[in-house]
Amino acid sequence: MMLIPTHHFRDIERKPEYLQPEKCVPPPYPGPVGTMWFIRDGCGIACAIVTWFLVLYAEFVVLFVMLIPSRDYVYSIINGIVFNLLAFLALASHCRAMLTDPGAVPKGNATKEFIESLQLKPGQVVYKCPKCCSIKPDRAHHCSVCKRCIRKMDHHCPWVNNCVGENNQKYFVLFTMYIALISLHALIMVGFHFLHCFEEDWTKCSSFSPPTTVILLILLCFEGLLFLIFTSVMFGTQVHSICTDETGIERLKRKNQPRERTGSWQSVKETFGGDFSLNWFNPFSRPCQPEIPSDKDMVRQVTSLSDTETMEDPSEETKDEDSVEVTDE
Fold first, then answer.
1. What EC number(s) does this enzyme carry (predicted)?
2. Owning domain of residue 79
3. Is the pLDDT of residue 148 over 70?
4. Is 157 annotated in the active site?
């Protein structure tokens, strides 16, 4: 339960009717555990397809332009295995980040019956998102693309066509790490290949014509450099967010809320799945499953509130959600 300081202000009503719960449709029957999550967003789907295309393009150039024509078989085999393994892990991490529920709050649970069942005590308040009719727990934010409130939402990433939240942040971190690694590996191989072709005859260092070879290598070099910078920055910001237990949205808002933070090492273990092991780098192993939020986790405690005081929502803008609270008569 989060304590809300009184120096934030917004209008508060005592009755559940203020939330207009009669407009909320009861939540649908929950699907089976492991049901696939997929966001039907045109831009996100296009970005995901482009991501796969760029990785497969790099795979084509590395294999058919640089490694297979090479006469150094040991060099080709070692680099081929390393690059293909990293590419496979990158695409697997991408799929897991895209198809994993990031931590969606049950939709449509802000009904009058549910609010009354919480039996709010004096000084307690709950917040509702009017966009998806959900009662929002602490640190949940609404995503306009997913059209759901997401627990510990960091941001919505079109490249994985999904939000990055408490359930799939590990996969997103692995995706950025493996993309950065294959980009760096590809750049190093391009550099060695150019040196080799300058020393040898260009017609012998590739099965393609020299102009085609140069164009393919330059495009791969540009792609590798661009994605190395981009994913390295994303990887660094994600690791920083995990270690500080502060999401990207929380960092941007910088509201001084009296929230208890998890220790940096504990936060890392929760994100990647227990104590340090090779499973941290495995996109097929699951992170530590968070406890299923109970009803009391949706209730927030006001530090000091009288009948005449007003309070602002501590986690979202005023226009994004409503609230209901109970005070002493």
1. 2.3.1.225
2. 37-103+157-251+261-292
3. yes
4. yes
